[in-house]
Amino acid sequence: MKTSNRQLKRSVQEKLLPLPWWARFLESLLLLLPRKLISINLQPELDIKLIDPDRGEWEAMSADLQFSVKWGAPTVRSGWYYLEAALTRHTGNKAAKLHVDFGDGVGKAVHIPIPSNRRGSIREVFYLPKGVSALFWSPCQSAGRFTQSPLIIHRITWVESYCRRLGRVLFDRNRQSQRHLLDDSTKITWPDILLNLQSAYLRGAETRLTRYAGIDYEDFIRLNDTLTEADKQSIAKQIPSLPNKPLISIVMPVFNPPADYLRQALDSVIAQLYPHWELCIADDASTEPEARQILEHYRQTDSRIRVSYRNINGHICRASNTALEMAAGEFIALMDQDDLIPPHALYHVAVEINRFPDADLVYTDEDKIDETGGRYDPYFKSDWNPDLFYSQNMVSHLGVYRARLVRELGGFRPGFEGSQDYDLALRCASRISPGNIRHIPRVLYHWRAHVASTALTLDNKDYAHQAGLRALTEHLLTLGAIAEDGPYRGTYHARFPIPTPAPLVSLIIPTRDRVDILRVCIESIRSTTLYPNWEILLVNNQSREPATLAYFEEMKRDPRIRLLNYDAPFNYSAINNFAAGEARGEILGFINNDVEVIAKGWLEEMVGHAVRPDIGAVGARLLYPDGRVQHAGVILGVGGVANHAHLYLDQDAPGYFGRARLTQNFSAVTGACLLIRKELFVEVGMLDEVNLPVAFNDVDLCLRIRRFGLRNVYCPQAELYHHESLSRGAEDTSAKRARAKQEIRYMENTWSSYLSCDPYYNPNLATKKLDFSVSAQPVHSSHHGYPLQIARSV
Fold first, then answer.
1. What does residue 443 show for φ and ψ, rounded to 5 degrees?
2. SS3 315
3. CA–CA gap between residue 222 and residue 367 (Å, rounded)
4. Residue 400's beta-bridge partner residues?
5. For residue 616, what is the enclosing H or E element?
6. Which one, of 701, 683, 684, lies nearest residue 692 by Cα?
7. Spatial CA neighbour of 433 closest among 475, 410, 405
8. Which domains does the chain have, with CATH numbers?
9. Does the pLDDT at position 651 exceed 60?
10. Helix (H) or strand (E) holding 301
11. How far is it, in rounded angstroms, from Cα 156 to Cα 95?
C-alpha cells in the first residue's frame, strides 16, 4: 500500500508546475515534519461523465457538485490539511472548491476556494473543523470539460500549515506590490499577517481564484448586461436624437414552432426599445393549427407584425425569401422562431448604423438560452476576422444586412438549408469593403438550446455543416483556395495551395552553442518537411563550444544549409535583419533554434498563406514538450504588452469556440516561427534593432504590417514543439531586466492605441488572463466608440 501511495504521489507531482529553487529548498525542510497521507476516493455524481480514462478527462453537465470525496478513515478528523493536484479546465468557469457538509445539507456547506495557477497546479492548505459529515469536490463551478489528476491530501501539523500559509501570503503581498494591485479589496497588510494569518491567506486565495478563474457569466450578466429602468429611460431619450432612424425588418421563417418559444420570441421583438422595426414572418405551411392562432393574435396586436402563410412547405430558404419580399426596411435582421433578442438589441444596431453610415453588414455577440430561460455559453467575438470567418460562421447571430445588398444577391439560396445565413454572409462579404462590416461587442441575441436545436449540438443538423462546406467551397474558388472539413463539426479549413513552382523559403535560424537543441531543430526540418524548396541560413552568434563548431562543419556538407557568422553581442533583431539580407528566398522564415517540427505539411500550409497578397506575417502553432499550448496567436494588452492566446491549454482542447485549433487573423504572431514575404519585410522596415533588440520585435513587426493594411494569420496546421529560449536563458541579471523594461516602455509609448483594444479579441474578455475568460469589468473602448456597460451606454 505504501508503494502505491508513493507511486500515486509521484505521478501527480510530475504533472505539477515545478517549484523555483528557493521553494524546493523550503519544501525539503517542511517534509521533515510529521505528516500523514490520507487515502481518499473521488465518487462522480450524476451530472458528470468520464471522457478519457487515460488522461483523466471529464465532462460536467451542470454546475452541481461533481464529486463526493470518500475518506479512507471512518470519520474525518479535524485539523490542517495540504492538497496537491493537477487540474486543467478546458471549458466552463475555472473556479475549484471543496464543499464541507456538516449534515445540514449541501446548501449550508462551507465552501473552501482552491485556486490553481495558469498551468493548473494546485498546492493549497485548508482546515477541517470538527463535525464534518461529508466532503464534495467541484473542479469547476459550471458545466464544462476538465482534466484532473487524483487528489493527494496530507494531514499536516500546525507548524507546517503556518509556514505554508505565511510563505504564500508573503508571496502574494510581494506580487501585489510588483503589479500595483494594492486596492482596498485585495490589499494584504502587515497587521493582517501578524494578527489574522488565516484571514489573509483566504483573501489571497480568493484573489488568485478570481485572477485565474474569472467571474461566472451569471455575475457578468448581473453587473454588465442587465437593464435598469434608468437605462431604459436613458435609451428612450437618446433615440429621437439619432440623425438616422433606419427601419429594420426582422425576417423570421416559421414552421411548427413550440408554442411557448414562439410567444417568447415575438414578445422579445415587441419589447424592443427602438421602435422603428417591422417583423416579417413567413409561415412555411405549418401543420400545427396553434401556430396560425398565435401568429394571428400577434399580427392583430401590433401593426408592425406582418405575416404571410405559404401553401406549400418549401423549407427555410424559400420561407425566408417569402418573408424578405414583405420587408420594407433599409436593413434586415435574421431571427429564428424560438430565439430571443434583448430589449436594447435594435437600439444598438441603429446606433452602429448612425456611427458608420456605410455599414452593409452588422453582427453582434451572442449566447445560448436553455429551456428554463438560463443564459450561458456567451460567444464574445472578434471584430471582422476574414480567416476566422472561413473557419466558422462567426457572424451568425445577430446578423443585420443592408436590404438592397441582399436583394441584389438574390436572397437566400435553396440548397443551402441549415447554413443559409453563412452562405448569405459569405456572398455579402465578397461584395463589400471590410470596413463596411461592423461588429457590436454586446450580447444582443439569445440562441435557444433545446433537444432538436443546432445550438445544443451541431450533430443534430449534420446537413447544416455540409451546406456550409458547399457555400465556403464556392466562395473560396474565387480566391484559388480549397474548403475542407475543420477539426470539429461546424468548422472548416481554408487551404491555400502553394504556387507552381514553389517559391524558395529561406529559414533563418540564429544560434549560439547548445548543439543538443540545435540538432533537434535542424534534423526535424530535414526529416519531416515535405515542402520541396527551402534553404537554411544558420546564423552563428559567437558560438564557442567544440561540439557546436563541429556540427557547423557537418552542416556545410548539406547544399541546402548555409552558415553565416554574426560576431557581435546578441541582438535578435539585428541578427535576423543581417541574415535576411543574405537570403535568396522570396519568403523568409524566422525560426528559433529550439523548435522541433511535428507536422509534415507545416511549411506548405504557411507558404500558402504567406503568398496571399492581403496577408503579412504567418505564425505557427507551438506546443511545449509536454503537449500544452505555448503559442496560438498573440493578443495585445493581455497580461501587459501582449501575450499568447490559450497559453498552457491542452494540445487537443478546442479552446474558446474552437479558436485554439482554427486558422484566423490575430494582431500578431510569434517570431519563434514566422513566415513573411521578403519584399514586404523590407518594405515595412524589418525588425527594430535599436529599440527592440530582444523582446516584442515580432509584435512590433506585426503591428507595422497591420498599419500597412495587411492581416496576420495564425496557422494551427503548422505545428511544432517549442523549448522556449533554452539557448538564451532567463532574464536573470539587472542589465537584462533593465533592457526588458525599456522594451516594454517603447511598446507602450509607440503602440498605446493598439494595445488598449485588440480588434481580434473582445473588450468583454479579461485582460489579466489568457484563456478568454469573461471580464469582471469590460473596458470603455474608444475603438468601439461607446462604453459596454449598459447603465452608461448612452
1. -80, 105
2. helix
3. 15
4. 333, 362
5. strand 615-623
6. 701
7. 405
8. 2-213 (no CATH), 229-495 (3.90.550.10), 505-756 (3.90.550.10)
9. yes
10. helix 289-301
11. 25
**φ, ψ for residue 495, nearest 5 deg:** -100, 125
What is the Cα–Cα distance from 341 to 760, expressed in whole angstroms? 25
What pairs with residue 124 in β-bridges?
83
d(Cα 523, Cα 518) in Å, to the nearest integer? 8
Nearest to 634 by CA among 748, 783, 752, 770: 770
What confidence tens digit (pLDDT) does each residue in 143-175 have?
A: 777 888 888 899 999 899 888 888 888 877 776
Beta bridge partners of 152: 84
**Measured between alpha carbons, how far is 651 from 622 in angstroms, rounded to an integer?**
10
What does the alpha-carbon distance between residue 320 and residue 337 come to, in Å, rounded to a whole number?
11
DSSP state of 558: S
pLDDT tens by residue, 356-381 = 999 999 999 999 998 888 888 899 99
pLDDT in tens, 480-490: 999 999 998 89
Rounded CA gap, 619 and 712, in Å? 8
What the block records as the C-alpha cell of 100 is 464541507
275 class by beta-carbon count within 10 Å (0-12 exposed, 13-18 middle, 19+ buried): exposed
Instruction: Assign 19 to helix, strand or coil.
Output: coil
Q: Which three cell numbers stand for residue 567?
A: 560576431
Half-sphere exposure of 476 (CA within 13 A, CB side): 22
From 680, 689, 683, 726, select the one nearest 572 (Cα to Cα).
689
Helix, strand, coil abundance in the chain, percent, nearest 5: 35, 25, 40
Task: Give the Å distances, CA to CA, from 112 to 83, 161, 258, 460.
Answer: 12, 16, 43, 39
Cα 175 to Cα 160: distance, rounded to the nearest angstrom: 23
Neighbour-count burial of 30, counting CB atoms closer than 10 A to its CB (0-12 exposed, 13-18 middle, 19+ buried) = middle
| 654 neighbors 623 (Cβ within 8 angstroms) | no
CA distance 434 to 395: 13
Greater model confidence, 51 or 337:
337
Residue 277: the pLDDT is 98
100-114, 648-662, 762-776: the lowest-pLDDT one:
100-114
Using the predicted structure, report yes or no on whether residue 789 has a pLDDT greater than 70.
Answer: no
Given a cut of 50, is residue 595 above it in pLDDT?
yes
Angle at the Cα of 686 from the Cα atoms of 712 and 717, rounded to 5 degrees: 30
Verdict on whether the full-model pTM lies above 0.90: no
> Which letter, b or e, does each residue of 70-87 get, where b requires 16 or more Cβ atoms within 10 Å of its Cβ?
ebeeeebeeebbbbbbbb
Asked whether 439 and 381 are in contact (CB, 8 A), the reply is yes
Q: Within a 10 A sphere around the Cβ of 221, how many other Cβ atoms?
A: 16
Burial class (CB in 10 A: 0-12, 13-18, 19+), 482: middle
The residues pairing with 665 across neighbouring beta strands, listed in sequence order, are 713
Q: If you compute the radius of gyration of the chain from its CA atoms, what whole number of angstroms results? A: 29
